[in-house]
Write a structure and sequence with these properties.
Elements: H1 2-23, H2 28-131, H3 138-164, H4 173-196
Helix pairs in contact: 1-2, 2-4, 3-4
Protein backbone atom coordinates (compact mmCIF):
# COMPACT_ATOMS: atom_id res chain seq x y z
CA UNK A 1 0.00 0.00 0.00
CA UNK A 2 2.77 2.43 0.96
CA UNK A 3 4.90 1.45 -2.07
CA UNK A 4 1.96 2.12 -4.36
CA UNK A 5 1.58 5.56 -2.80
CA UNK A 6 5.30 6.18 -3.39
CA UNK A 7 4.99 5.21 -7.08
CA UNK A 8 2.00 7.53 -7.54
CA UNK A 9 3.93 10.33 -5.85
CA UNK A 10 6.99 9.78 -8.08
CA UNK A 11 4.81 9.70 -11.21
CA UNK A 12 3.06 12.90 -10.17
CA UNK A 13 6.43 14.50 -9.46
CA UNK A 14 7.69 13.46 -12.91
CA UNK A 15 4.69 15.13 -14.56
CA UNK A 16 5.44 18.22 -12.54
CA UNK A 17 9.05 18.22 -13.77
CA UNK A 18 7.99 17.82 -17.39
CA UNK A 19 5.46 20.66 -17.09
CA UNK A 20 8.03 22.91 -15.46
CA UNK A 21 10.58 22.35 -18.21
CA UNK A 22 8.38 22.41 -21.30
CA UNK A 23 5.60 24.78 -20.39
CA UNK A 24 7.78 27.47 -18.82
CA UNK A 25 10.40 27.37 -21.56
CA UNK A 26 13.54 27.41 -19.39
CA UNK A 27 17.10 27.33 -20.77
CA UNK A 28 19.10 24.08 -20.82
CA UNK A 29 21.23 24.92 -17.77
CA UNK A 30 18.29 26.33 -15.89
CA UNK A 31 16.32 23.35 -16.98
CA UNK A 32 18.96 20.90 -15.67
CA UNK A 33 19.13 22.74 -12.35
CA UNK A 34 15.35 22.68 -11.95
CA UNK A 35 15.25 19.00 -12.83
CA UNK A 36 18.00 18.30 -10.28
CA UNK A 37 16.09 20.29 -7.64
CA UNK A 38 12.86 18.54 -8.44
CA UNK A 39 14.62 15.17 -8.46
CA UNK A 40 16.22 15.94 -5.06
CA UNK A 41 12.86 17.07 -3.64
CA UNK A 42 11.23 13.99 -5.08
CA UNK A 43 13.95 11.72 -3.65
CA UNK A 44 13.72 13.47 -0.27
CA UNK A 45 9.94 13.12 -0.27
CA UNK A 46 10.17 9.43 -1.24
CA UNK A 47 12.78 8.84 1.49
CA UNK A 48 10.57 10.66 4.01
CA UNK A 49 7.54 8.56 3.05
CA UNK A 50 9.62 5.35 3.26
CA UNK A 51 10.97 6.37 6.71
CA UNK A 52 7.48 7.14 7.94
CA UNK A 53 6.23 3.82 6.56
CA UNK A 54 9.09 1.90 8.21
CA UNK A 55 8.49 3.71 11.54
CA UNK A 56 4.80 2.83 11.41
CA UNK A 57 5.59 -0.81 10.65
CA UNK A 58 8.17 -0.90 13.48
CA UNK A 59 5.65 0.66 15.89
CA UNK A 60 3.00 -1.86 14.89
CA UNK A 61 5.47 -4.72 15.34
CA UNK A 62 6.35 -3.40 18.82
CA UNK A 63 2.65 -3.17 19.72
CA UNK A 64 2.04 -6.72 18.49
CA UNK A 65 5.05 -7.98 20.46
CA UNK A 66 3.83 -6.12 23.55
CA UNK A 67 0.32 -7.56 23.17
CA UNK A 68 1.75 -11.06 22.76
CA UNK A 69 3.78 -10.59 25.92
CA UNK A 70 0.71 -9.32 27.81
CA UNK A 71 -1.38 -12.25 26.58
CA UNK A 72 1.38 -14.71 27.55
CA UNK A 73 1.72 -13.12 30.99
CA UNK A 74 -2.05 -13.10 31.52
CA UNK A 75 -2.30 -16.76 30.46
CA UNK A 76 0.57 -17.73 32.78
CA UNK A 77 -1.03 -15.81 35.65
CA UNK A 78 -4.44 -17.40 35.02
CA UNK A 79 -2.85 -20.86 34.86
CA UNK A 80 -0.97 -20.23 38.10
CA UNK A 81 -4.11 -18.99 39.86
CA UNK A 82 -6.08 -21.99 38.60
CA UNK A 83 -3.38 -24.40 39.79
CA UNK A 84 -3.33 -22.70 43.21
CA UNK A 85 -7.13 -22.93 43.47
CA UNK A 86 -7.05 -26.61 42.49
CA UNK A 87 -4.31 -27.32 45.04
CA UNK A 88 -6.27 -25.54 47.80
CA UNK A 89 -9.47 -27.38 46.86
CA UNK A 90 -7.63 -30.72 46.86
CA UNK A 91 -6.16 -29.93 50.28
CA UNK A 92 -9.62 -28.99 51.58
CA UNK A 93 -11.08 -32.23 50.23
CA UNK A 94 -8.28 -34.25 51.83
CA UNK A 95 -8.82 -32.48 55.16
CA UNK A 96 -12.57 -33.09 54.98
CA UNK A 97 -11.99 -36.76 54.14
CA UNK A 98 -9.63 -37.13 57.11
CA UNK A 99 -12.12 -35.45 59.43
CA UNK A 100 -14.94 -37.66 58.14
CA UNK A 101 -12.81 -40.78 58.60
CA UNK A 102 -11.93 -39.73 62.16
CA UNK A 103 -15.58 -39.01 62.99
CA UNK A 104 -16.65 -42.32 61.47
CA UNK A 105 -14.03 -44.18 63.51
CA UNK A 106 -15.21 -42.53 66.73
CA UNK A 107 -18.88 -43.24 66.00
CA UNK A 108 -18.13 -46.86 65.01
CA UNK A 109 -16.10 -47.46 68.18
CA UNK A 110 -18.76 -45.84 70.40
CA UNK A 111 -21.57 -47.94 68.86
CA UNK A 112 -19.49 -51.12 69.08
CA UNK A 113 -18.63 -50.51 72.78
CA UNK A 114 -22.29 -49.80 73.56
CA UNK A 115 -23.37 -53.03 71.80
CA UNK A 116 -20.61 -55.05 73.51
CA UNK A 117 -21.70 -53.73 76.92
CA UNK A 118 -25.35 -54.68 76.26
CA UNK A 119 -24.23 -58.08 74.96
CA UNK A 120 -22.08 -58.71 78.06
CA UNK A 121 -25.00 -57.81 80.34
CA UNK A 122 -27.32 -60.15 78.44
CA UNK A 123 -24.68 -62.92 78.64
CA UNK A 124 -24.64 -62.47 82.44
CA UNK A 125 -28.41 -62.93 82.44
CA UNK A 126 -27.93 -66.05 80.29
CA UNK A 127 -25.41 -67.45 82.79
CA UNK A 128 -27.97 -67.03 85.57
CA UNK A 129 -30.55 -68.86 83.44
CA UNK A 130 -28.22 -71.75 82.51
CA UNK A 131 -27.12 -72.11 86.14
CA UNK A 132 -30.70 -72.98 87.02
CA UNK A 133 -31.07 -75.33 84.02
CA UNK A 134 -30.23 -78.40 86.12
CA UNK A 135 -33.50 -77.92 87.97
CA UNK A 136 -35.62 -78.13 84.79
CA UNK A 137 -37.96 -81.15 85.00
CA UNK A 138 -37.63 -83.77 82.28
CA UNK A 139 -41.01 -82.92 80.72
CA UNK A 140 -39.92 -79.24 80.25
CA UNK A 141 -36.35 -80.09 79.19
CA UNK A 142 -37.17 -80.28 75.44
CA UNK A 143 -38.84 -76.85 75.42
CA UNK A 144 -35.93 -75.37 77.42
CA UNK A 145 -33.33 -76.91 75.04
CA UNK A 146 -35.20 -75.48 72.04
CA UNK A 147 -35.22 -72.02 73.66
CA UNK A 148 -31.45 -72.26 74.40
CA UNK A 149 -30.77 -73.29 70.76
CA UNK A 150 -32.47 -70.07 69.62
CA UNK A 151 -30.27 -68.14 72.09
CA UNK A 152 -27.09 -69.78 70.73
CA UNK A 153 -28.09 -68.99 67.13
CA UNK A 154 -28.63 -65.35 68.07
CA UNK A 155 -25.18 -65.27 69.73
CA UNK A 156 -23.62 -66.17 66.35
CA UNK A 157 -25.64 -63.42 64.65
CA UNK A 158 -24.61 -60.84 67.23
CA UNK A 159 -20.94 -61.80 66.94
CA UNK A 160 -21.19 -61.31 63.15
CA UNK A 161 -22.91 -57.96 63.71
CA UNK A 162 -20.16 -56.78 66.08
CA UNK A 163 -17.49 -57.87 63.55
CA UNK A 164 -19.34 -55.92 60.83
CA UNK A 165 -18.53 -52.68 62.67
CA UNK A 166 -14.92 -53.15 61.53
CA UNK A 167 -15.91 -52.78 57.84
CA UNK A 168 -18.60 -50.14 58.31
CA UNK A 169 -18.68 -47.02 56.10
CA UNK A 170 -20.48 -43.74 56.54
CA UNK A 171 -23.31 -45.10 54.38
CA UNK A 172 -23.65 -48.42 56.24
CA UNK A 173 -23.10 -47.26 59.83
CA UNK A 174 -26.79 -46.62 60.53
CA UNK A 175 -27.90 -49.94 59.01
CA UNK A 176 -25.27 -51.88 60.94
CA UNK A 177 -26.26 -50.23 64.25
CA UNK A 178 -29.94 -50.91 63.57
CA UNK A 179 -29.24 -54.62 62.85
CA UNK A 180 -27.16 -54.95 66.05
CA UNK A 181 -29.94 -53.30 68.10
CA UNK A 182 -32.59 -55.60 66.60
CA UNK A 183 -30.49 -58.73 67.18
CA UNK A 184 -29.74 -57.69 70.79
CA UNK A 185 -33.48 -57.17 71.38
CA UNK A 186 -34.19 -60.64 69.91
CA UNK A 187 -31.40 -62.07 72.09
CA UNK A 188 -32.95 -60.55 75.21
CA UNK A 189 -36.37 -61.95 74.25
CA UNK A 190 -34.87 -65.42 73.60
CA UNK A 191 -33.13 -65.37 77.01
CA UNK A 192 -36.40 -64.37 78.68
CA UNK A 193 -38.18 -67.20 76.81
CA UNK A 194 -35.59 -69.69 78.04
CA UNK A 195 -35.90 -68.25 81.56
CA UNK A 196 -39.68 -68.76 81.38
CA UNK A 197 -39.04 -72.51 80.86
CA UNK A 198 -37.28 -72.74 84.23
CA UNK A 199 -39.24 -73.93 87.28
CA UNK A 200 -40.40 -71.20 89.59
Amino acid sequence: MAKKAIRVFVWQTGIGVWLATHALGCSGEEHARQIADLQKKSDDRVAQVERKYKEQVANLEKQVASLRLEVTDAAAKAKSEAEDAIAKAAASVEDAEKEAATALGKARDAYRREAQTKYANLNNELKAVTAKARKVPAKSKAAYDKAIQAVLKLQKDINKDLAAYQEVTLDTLGKTKAKVDVDLAKYKMAINKAKAKLPR
